[in-house]
Amino acid sequence: MPDFNTEEFKVSGEQLLAKLKDLLHQGNIRRVVIKDKDGKVLIEFPLSIGVVGFVLAPTLAAVGAIAALVTEATIIVEKEK
Fold first, then answer.
1. In this predicted model, which residue has the larger pLDDT, 81 or 35?
2. What is the pLDDT of residues 19-66, one digit of tens each?
3. How far is the C-alpha of 49 from the C-alpha of 30, rounded, in Å?
4. 55-58 long-range contacts, Cβ below 8 Å, gap at least 24?
5. 4-80 has which fold?
6. Which DSSP category does 49 fall into?
7. Reduced to 3 states, what is the DSSP secondary structure of residue 30?
8. Which residues have CB under 8 Å from 33's CB, separation 6+?
9. DSSP run (H or E) holding 65
10. Other C-beta atoms within 10 Å of 73: how many?
């Protein structure tokens, strides 16, 4: 059995970055996948325990650029149990 839970969140492009920051703040996330409304993967990145903010800054900048381009997105997160 996998040692993680998967959760999916559908958000608008405007809400994408804020929701992702909120999820990251909650912690215990192993991996994040962001898909467009057609299910195409736009970005996927693993997270390790102890990742600090300045390491995530380039990734969050990329997510911000994606948010400006999409109207709807799905965030899929894998969380540690």
1. 35
2. 988 988 887 888 899 999 999 999 998 876 555 555 677 788 888 888
3. 8
4. 56/24
5. Dna Ligase; domain 1 (3.30.1490)
6. T
7. strand
8. 41, 43, 44, 75, 76, 77
9. helix 53-69
10. 24
